Amino acid sequence: MEYVTLNNGVKMPKLGYGVFQTPPEDTRRCVLEAIETGYRSIDTAQAYGNEEGVGNALAECGLPREELFITTKIRISNAGFEKAKASIETSLKKLRTDYVDLLLIHQPFGDYYGTYRAMEEAYKEKTARAIGVSNFYPDRYLDLVHFSQVTPAVNQMETHVFFQQKNARTYMQKHGTQLMSWGPFAEGKNDFFKNPVLNEIGAAHKKTAAQTALRFLLQKDVIVIPKSVHRERMEENFQVFDFTLTDEELKRIEELDGGKSLFFSHHDPDTVEWFMSIV
Predict the structure, then answer these.
(1) Does residue 112 have an active-site annotation?
(2) 74, 92, 95, 75: which is closest to 31 by C-alpha?
(3) How is residue 126 annotated by DSSP?
(4) What CATH number is given for 3-277 in this structure?
(5) Which residues, including other chains, have CB under 8 Å from residue 154's CB and lie 6 or more apart?
(6) Is 269:109 a contact under the CB 8 Å cutoff?
């Protein structure tokens, strides 16, 4: 396993297991299988509705709590100091733990300042070892950074070979905030798994396009949390530490960057209206 050291000194695995869209009834099994495969970092969220499944797996896996790195996120409907504070307690109960290793604001909407104040309190009380944000573009990220006591340790954003977040990283690096990828495979968009560059480079290392894409992000110091409900795919995604991409190969993959989202923009009014409709 490779690790990054966050801006507060906490070590975090660069490869984790994500449970976005994993059905609650399957989450316990999937997380147990991921841990058996070797994953030690698990990423969930209040909005996923499966924190309890993660918690059950943590309780049953047999590993000491300190060997696991657990991330969860506060949903929009829990924005604001009091609601966020209460939701943190609820998440801890569902996860069956006294603390989370990383606590994030899920979306840059609602009273995220109040949410972050509750998170700073959790950080000081050691119920969160590190705090940060998710989906914060440079404008809102910088706004929060300059008016908070604890600089975000992580910003989890859509990041893959077709959208490498080069602009956002410029600002995050100034403040020591680590980029964490959601959607490292772009959910298959742009014929991701058939991409000739990824497949050609992968073939040279006897690896798949998916493994090549993960290796690229890891070598670019991006934390990745690929998700799968199939054990064989979990194992495949974990086999990315036994090869290294050359500088030329990295450059070829860098050239795949389109510089824009393949999903949605948080600056788009229609997207904002959609998020508000689900609160």
Answers:
(1) no
(2) 95
(3) T
(4) 3.20.20.100
(5) 6, 12, 102, 104, 130, 132, 133, 177, 178, 179, 180, 223
(6) no
DSSP 8-state class, residue 100: B
pTM above 0.85, yes or no: yes
Strands 69-74 and 223-224: unpaired
3-state secondary structure of 222: coil
Q: Do 40 and 68 touch, CB atoms closer than 8 A? A: yes
- pLDDT tens across 161-206, in order? 999 999 999 999 999 999 999 999 999 999 999 999 999 999 999 9
Q: Catalytic: which of 17, 39, 48, 141?
A: 48
Q: Based on the number of CB atoms within 10 Å of its own CB, is 121 exposed (0-12), middle (13-18) or buried (19 or more)?
A: middle
Locate tokens 């990315």: which residue?
240
Q: Domain boundaries in the chain?
A: 3-277
| Cβ–Cβ < 8 Å for 99, 127 | yes
Give the whole-angstrom CA distance, residue 23 versus residue 9: 34
DSSP string, 135-204: S--HHHHHHHHHT-SS--SEEEEE-BTTB--HHHHHHHHHTTPEEEEE-TTGGGGGGGGG-HHHHHHHHH
Closest residue by Cα to residue 218 from 271, 168, 160: 160
First to last CA, the chain: 37
Helices 81-95 & 51-60 angle (0-180, nearest 10): 40
